[in-house]
């Protein structure tokens, strides 16, 4: 071979390589528009190991290629929760017989009121996935929840302090960030295209071991386990549509990556089915199509922009004939998701969906379970128009539903205010009740959920707030304005039907 032939061969090889890179980057263009994954950008871990394409039919799958791609982008997360004092003061539900002789403070000191319980320092660990070159990391909410300190260790042993960007327990997802650049990260796959029986790999830091890779197959989709709860502690408002696999996952794998044989992220490992707490055959991952929308919302808005269809639903396979009759569902229906209640100010009502309608498709995807319904709706925000196909009286009816937020309008939700940190439902005291109590106004603590009130006090539902930091509170709006300006507050008020005023000091920074 002469010099011209050599140069020609090199030139052809170079052009071919450039063509492959250009073609692959073009292929990525439409799939990398979420959460810091810029179009036409290929992470360094993919360049170093090839593009990770699935081999052609008849060629054995090699797990080393996707493993090499993913390992640099999966991190070890360690958390520390500082020791805390918890106020154990229960309200005295009747006037103390000693009140004529002792002040309330002295009575508490002598007879056990206001005792403080100490919750010791706690440490935990889990996994996370780098999803952008500038340090955004997705993990499970339960990995970082209530942590005062978050530390991230990369596969190359470099360690960083991480900042919590946002979290949502309804999805069990959180976003944290480290200050670093040019990091390897995982490209998003498409969990809608995941097939039962396909090979998948789980990566993480189980049992405090170094990075671990396990292989298995997808054994089911759209599983709902009843594990998640929203910020108020309500499991009914949570979103679950897990990918079920038989890839071995243990404690510490939470927040780690589930990838396909292309080396693309298709899920966030979150749970196992086990009577012992250790892997017993099944593991569960949050589909990446849910995760990337949640992550994108948190990065852009600070909170998840969640759209609601505005219905309650049930599976005909789980209903008795009596329940079917009550909800207008044909007794002959043996499967399918049916609307059992319609919210009057919801998007479904406005679009014409009625009680007893079968939800056949959402976003042009067949709906056979509640998990599949939740998964499709979770991809959209308030104001988005979603195609929904229903069946009524054996007729197929295509509709378009404009989703609303939880409050029943189309507004995007602002990041949680400080009053949300308190973790309770508040309502204005009615004027009639205020007159009955001999006060000008107040705020009723309607229901205590998870948050600062629950964590730091023994306040009970029904408490009437009169003052915060000695400032009169006559409405929820006044309460919001006062709380927004403070880091430490003292809530003062009373329990209707019982004597005495009670004070509850709260540190709002503790529950951030």
Structure description:
This protein is α+β, with helices and mostly antiparallel strands. The protein has 3 domains: 32-83 and 120-304, Thrombin, subunit H; 311-402, Pdz3 Domain; 418-511, Pdz3 Domain (Roll). It is built from 13 helices and 26 strands. A 6-stranded antiparallel barrel has the order 1-4-5-8-7-6. A 6-stranded antiparallel beta barrel has the order 9-10-11-14-13-12. Strands 15, 16, 17, 18, 19 and 20 form a 6-stranded antiparallel sheet that branches. The longest helix is centred in the first third of the chain and has 26 residues, at 3-28. The radius of gyration is 27 Å and the shape is globular. 35% of the residues are buried.
Architecture blueprint of SSEs:
Elements: H1 3-28, H2 44-49, H3 64-70, E1 74-81, E2 84-87, H4 104-111, E3 116-119, E4 122-130, E5 136-139, H5 141-144, E6 149-153, E7 159-168, E8 173-177, E9 199-204, E10 212-223, E11 242-245, E12 257-259, E13 265-273, E14 282-287, H6 288-301, E15 311-315, H7 321-326, E16 337-342, H8 347-351, E17 358-362, E18 365-366, H9 370-377, E19 385-392, E20 395-402, H10 418-421, E21 424-428, H11 431-437, E22 443-448, H12 452-456, E23 464-468, E24 471-472, H13 476-484, E25 488-494, E26 502-507
Antiparallel strand pairs: 1-4, 1-6, 2-3, 4-5, 5-8, 6-7, 7-8, 9-10, 9-12, 10-11, 11-14, 12-13, 13-14, 15-16, 16-17, 17-18, 17-19, 19-20, 21-22, 22-23, 23-24, 23-25, 25-26
């Amino acid at each position: 071979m002469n010099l011209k032939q050599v140069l020609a061969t090199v030139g052809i090889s170079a052009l071919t390589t450039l063509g492959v890179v250009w073609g692959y980057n073009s292929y990525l263009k439409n799939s990398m528009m979420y959460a810091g994954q810029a179009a036409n950008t290929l992470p360094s871990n993919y360049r170093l190991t090839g593009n990770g394409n699935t081999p052609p039919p008849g060629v054995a799958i090699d797990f080393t290629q996707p493993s090499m791609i993913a390992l640099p982008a999966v991190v070890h997360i360690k958390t520390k929760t500082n020791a805390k004092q918890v106020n154990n003061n229960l309200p005295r539900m009747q006037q103390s017989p000693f009140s004529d002789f002792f002040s309330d403070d002295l009575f508490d000191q002598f007879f056990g009121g206001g005792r403080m319980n100490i919750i010791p320092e706690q440490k935990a660990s889990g996994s996370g996935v780098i999803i952008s070159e500038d340090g955004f990391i997705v993990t499970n909410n339960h990995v970082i929840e209530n942590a005062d300190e978050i530390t991230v260790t990369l596969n190359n042993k470099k360690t960083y302090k991480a900042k919590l960007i946002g979290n949502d327990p309804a999805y069990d997802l959180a976003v944290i960030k480290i200050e670093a650049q040019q990091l390897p990260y995982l490209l998003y796959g498409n969990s809608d295209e995941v097939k039962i029986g396909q090979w998948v790999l789980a990566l993480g830091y189980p049992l405090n071991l170094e990075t671990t890779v396990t292989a298995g197959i997808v054994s089911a989709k759209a599983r709902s386990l009843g594990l998640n709860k929203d910020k108020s502690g309500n499991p009914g408002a949570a979103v679950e549509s897990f990918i079920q696999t038989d890839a071995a996952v243990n404690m510490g794998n939470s927040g780690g990556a589930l990838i396909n044989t292309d080396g693309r992220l298709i899920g966030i490992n979150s749970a196992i089915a086990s009577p012992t707490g250790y892997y017993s055959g099944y593991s569960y991952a949050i589909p990446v199509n849910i995760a990337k929308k949640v992550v994108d919302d948190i990065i852009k808005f600070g909170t998840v922009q969640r759209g609601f269809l505005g219905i309650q639903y049930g599976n005909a396979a789980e209903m008795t004939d009596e329940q079917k009759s009550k909800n207008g569902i044909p007794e002959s229906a043996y499967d399918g998701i049916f609307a059992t209640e319609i919210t009057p100010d919801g998007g479904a009502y406005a679009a014409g969906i009625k009680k007893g309608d079968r939800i056949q498709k959402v976003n042009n995807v067949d709906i056979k379970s509640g998990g599949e319904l939740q998964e499709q709706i979770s991809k959209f925000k308030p104001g988005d128009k979603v195609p929904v196909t229903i069946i009524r009286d054996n007729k197929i009816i295509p509709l378009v539903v404009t989703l609303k937020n939880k409050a029943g309008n189309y507004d995007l939700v602002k990041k949680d205010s400080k009053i949300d940190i308190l973790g309770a439902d508040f309502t204005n005291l009615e004027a009639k009740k205020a007159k009955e109590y001999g006060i000008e106004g107040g705020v009723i603590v309607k229901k205590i959920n998870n948050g600062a009130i629950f964590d730091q006090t023994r306040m009970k539902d029904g408490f009437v707030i009169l003052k915060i930091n000695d400032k009169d509170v006559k409405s929820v709006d006044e309460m919001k304005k006062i709380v927004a300006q403070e880091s430490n507050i003292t809530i003062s008020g009373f329990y209707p039907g019982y004597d005495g005023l009670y004070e509850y000091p709260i540190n709002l920074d503790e529950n951030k």
